Amino acid sequence: MTGRGPRTALLGLVAGMAGWAQAPMLQDGAVALRQARTAWTLGEAPLPPLALPSFEVGFGGAGSAGAYAPLLDGEGMGHGIQGWGLGLQGRYAAGGWSFSATLLALRSEGRTLGVLHRAALAYQWESGWRLALEQGPFAWGSGLSGGDLLGDSARPFPRLSLASPEAPLPFGRWRAEVFLGQLERDRPIPAWIPDRAARVAAQTSGWDLHRPDLVGGLLRATFGTQVEASLGAVTMTGGRGALGQPAPAAAARTTTLADLSVRVPALARLVHAQGASFHVSRSAAPEDRSITLDPPRDLGGLRLVWEGWEVGVEYAGAASPPAAPTFTQPAHLAGFSTYGDPLGPAFGRDAVTRTVELGLPLPLEGQGRLRVVRATAALDHPAGTGSWFAQGDVQWRTPTGRIGGSIASRRDEFPGSPARWGWTFSVFQSFRVF
Q1: Strand, coil or helix: 14
Q2: Residues 276/265, Cβ–Cβ less than 8 Å
Q3: Residues 6+ apart with CB under 8 A from 216
Q4: Phi-psi region of 71 (alpha: psi -120 to 50; beta: other; left: phi over 0)
Q5: How does DSSP classify residue 251?
Q6: In the list 73, 113, 224, 424, which could disulfide-bond 78, CB 3.0-4.6 Å?
Q7: In this structure, are residues 423 and 407 in contact, taking their beta carbons and an 8 Å threshold?
Q8: Torsions phi, psi of 97, nearest 5?
Q9: Are 190 and 337 in contact (CB under 8 A)?
């Protein structure tokens, strides 16, 4: 016991250092999810939220221009949230209750907008059950560019969630989470969706459904100390048409996921790393609400962690594109997206992606992360585009708080046409009050 305490503290510090390179406050939710993934690779429990009250203030901004470029782990910054201004972030916990919120006041295009970016009012029983009214990012899936079911690149949406404690059942330890949430009323048709022209035309004709509901569930199982598996599904349903009529049952759509993560201590020892893990998953989003893994999208990746350093590589395929849609009744034309960003993988489900990322220490006790992605259309989609994408994240702690930012750039290649560029950024400085 005496030797485990320092080791746990050291690995917890490594996990934290590997995770916090991004714009402070604006992307703290995504950073916490990344820290939890890194801690799992290291074989340690994720760091719990601080029990003491905390409060931060700061200023900064986010924006984008040109071709669509996602901000990985961006929580909607640059697309769903734009402008320059102030931010407040606080947390308080007492007994089983906890409350946290991140509020932004941003100036953009001549107007000031107040944004409830993240929030949670939660109660956790001593048995481990947790009930929450919250708005925060997800990590349902192990992808480097966002969970393949629900990720952290899009702006968080409000939901009511219930999570169970881990329970010892046959073959392993099991836990579950379910939620009911709702998306914004007027969702833009995403720039990255393959059949965008047909969907925009249908939206102009009044076929779009507003304010859809999301219902999701995820079951996680841990087998021994090295293996974790997940099964999940999310259904988009409900909403209202342009004249207030309820959505037809046929408009509902479901996306599903089967995910497996495995720690590999032998590989870690071979390369003198502190942790190593690989992840594989299969997901599907059929043109109906059936729970199936066909047509499949397969993903596989590897993560290695050293003290202050982290390396990840990943390949994600794309399901065969469906036939060009014809919209003859109300439909969720924006698909699984919010404020123009995908709810799942950051490049959408229709792109083949090859990702390399590097987390590294920076001078003056900073931490950085570099990511390069090659994204192309599915192999049997000859009219599709290819693109190169790069993102850099940095953050430093200061005597009074934190400063950092993220910037992403994308170069789209169209057959027979000039290349198009796009970029997205977020930057923020926060000051710790207490």
Answers
A1: helix
A2: yes
A3: 140, 149, 150, 178, 179, 181, 232, 233, 234, 235
A4: beta
A5: G
A6: 424
A7: yes
A8: -90, 150
A9: yes
> Per-residue pLDDT tens for 362-404?
999 999 999 999 999 854 454 457 899 999 999 999 999 999 9
Of 37 and 419, more confident: 37
Residues 409, 429 contacting (CB under 8 angstroms): no
Contact 314, 292 (CB under 8 A): no
Residue-wise pLDDT for 3-26, tens only, equals 444 343 333 434 344 456 788 889
Query: To 10 degrees, the CA torsion angle through 138, 140, 143, 148?
Result: -100
**Of the candidates 18, 27, 46, which has an alpha carbon nearest to the alpha carbon of residue 228?**
46
Give which of 6, 1, 3, 15 is closest to 44, Cα–Cα.
Answer: 15
Q: How far is CA 393 from CA 67, 358, 367, 387, in A?
A: 20, 10, 8, 20
Cα end-to-end span (Å), the chain: 33
Note whether 377 and 386 are within 8 A (CB).
yes
pLDDT the model gives residue 1: 36
> Residue 266: is its pLDDT beyond 70?
yes
CB 395 within 8 A of CB 366: yes
Helix (H) or strand (E) holding 218: strand 213-223
Backbone CA torsion sign across 330, 336, 339, 341 = negative
Pairing of strands 351-362, 366-377: antiparallel
Give the bridge partners for 111, in sequence order: 108
**Helix H or strand E encompassing 409:** strand 401-413
Element (H, E) at 423: strand 420-432
- Residue 427, judged by CB atoms within 10 A of its CB (0-12, 13-18, 19+), counts as buried
CA 401, chain centre distance (Å): 25
pTM of the model: 0.91
Q: Provide the 3-class DSSP secondary structure of residue 229.
A: strand
3-state class percentages of the chain: helix first, strand second, coil last, to nearest 5: 10, 50, 40
Q: Are 421 and 411 in contact (CB under 8 A)?
A: yes
Tell me what the mean pLDDT of segment 215-226 comes to: 96
Determine the Cα–Cα distance for residues 55 and 57; give it in Å rounded to an integer: 7
Q: Are 395 and 402 in contact (CB under 8 A)?
A: yes
CA distance 124 to 1: 28
Measured CA to CA in angstroms, residue 329 lies from 202, 241, 360 at distances of 9, 10, 51
